[in-house]
């Protein structure tokens, strides 16, 4: 764990364990955070999309951060602080700082298709909270694309220190490195892990380690170390699961895999619906194959 750059390494975008009545199971969440670190992960990212932050009350969202910090220490916790308004995102960044966190992750404005001036103003506002900001580029869901040129400008202004890259376009890694060589690239989608690791990624904001942390950590380290003899077969074995991270049903899929390996995933809050029978069968089969292969 590198304290001055706590976004480096494997940070798990944590799924949030829910009870059958859809209330948050904070005890299970604390246990889950500790289990991830015990199994080799470097930290957690609560209140991301995988953590269903959009459907949490403000009280729940704050308590999720506090629970993670109490479980594993603030230096290992990088909360998502996305919100419709810049002022609200800044308040969540301030809350993270008060809880003891060392960095936050921030989507661009996502209430509408923001232009470049709005994006810059948004990150400038949240940077004033005083914590390092990791940008999260997810143009699929936000309809705002943090292209390499815009990322370089955000970094040059001092607003961001790293970027979780979820566009799926692995070619961007090289352009980002040319335009902003000090901006840390983080793998943002599980199913391009190997490609972005080879391209020089410094970390992974990860989904499937929620269910299979040890194998995922082994894959990450082999990939960033250039040990392709280890990484390629492991990547091929895990890819049927990793690709769910880039699908609409990623939360449901990862929670199902958690349940299948003996963790507590539980249901999702509406409007997310349960997996269709054929989707559930595919996730179940891929998870059982991974476990049978000794991956955990």
Characterization of the model:
- GO terms for molecular function: 1-pyrroline-4-hydroxy-2-carboxylate deaminase activity; lyase activity.
- Its EC number is 3.5.4.22.
- This is Dihydrodipicolinate synthase/N-acetylneuraminate lyase.
- Belongs to the DapA family.
- This protein has 296 residues and is α/β, with parallel strands linked by helices.
- Helices cover 46% and strands 9% of the residues.
- It has a 7-stranded parallel sheet.
- Helix 9 packs across helix 10 and helix 11 crosses helix 12.
- The longest helix has 16 residues.
- The protein is globular.
- The mean pLDDT is 97.
SSE map:
Layout: E1 9-13, H1 26-38, E2 43-45, H2 58-72, H3 86-99, E3 104-106, H4 116-127, E4 133-137, H5 139-142, H6 148-156, E5 162-165, H7 172-179, E6 184-187, H8 193-198, E7 203-206, H9 213-224, H10 228-242, H11 250-260, H12 277-292
Parallel strand pairs: 1-2, 1-7, 3-4, 4-5, 5-6, 6-7
Helix pairs in contact: 1-2, 2-3, 3-4, 6-7, 9-10, 10-12, 11-12
Short structural description:
Keywords: Hydrolase, Lyase. With 296 residues, this protein is α/β, with parallel strands linked by helices. The chain is built from 12 helices and 7 strands.
């Amino acid at each position: 764990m590198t304290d001055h750059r706590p976004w480096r390494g494997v940070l798990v975008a944590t799924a949030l364990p829910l009870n059958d009545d859809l209330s948050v199971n904070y005890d299970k969440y604390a246990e889950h955070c500790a289990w991830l670190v015990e199994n080799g992960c470097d930290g957690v990212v609560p209140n991301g999309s995988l953590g269903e932050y959009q459907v949490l009350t403000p009280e729940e969202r704050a308590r999720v951060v506090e629970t993670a910090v109490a479980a594993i220490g603030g230096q290992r916790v990088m909360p998502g602080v996305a919100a419709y308004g810049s002022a609200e995102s800044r308040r969540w960044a301030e809350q993270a700082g008060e809880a003891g966190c060392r960095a936050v992750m921030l989507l661009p404005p996502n209430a509408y298709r923001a232009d470049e001036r709005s994006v810059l103003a948004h990150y400038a506002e949240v940077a004033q909270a005083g914590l390092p900001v990791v940008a999260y580029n997810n143009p699929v869901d936000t309809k705002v694309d943090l292209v390499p040129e815009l990322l370089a400008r955000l970094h040059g202004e001092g607003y961001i220190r790293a970027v979780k890259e979820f566009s799926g376009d692995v070619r961007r890694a090289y352009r980002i490195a040319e335009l902003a060589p000090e901006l840390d690239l983080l793998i943002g989608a599980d199913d391009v892990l190997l490609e972005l690791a080879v391209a020089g990624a410094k970390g992974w904001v990860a989904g499937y380690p929620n269910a299979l942390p040890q194998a995922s950590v082994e894959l990450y380290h082999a990939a960033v170390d250039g040990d392709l003899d280890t990484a390629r077969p492991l990547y091929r074995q895990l890819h049927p699961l990793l690709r769910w991270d880039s699908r609409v049903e990623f939360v449901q899929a990862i929670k199902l895999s958690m349940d299948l390996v003996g963790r507590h995933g539980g249901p999702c809050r509406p409007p997310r619906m349960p997996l269709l029978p054929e989707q559930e069968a595919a996730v179940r089969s891929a998870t059982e194959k991974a476990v049978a292969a000794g991956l955990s």
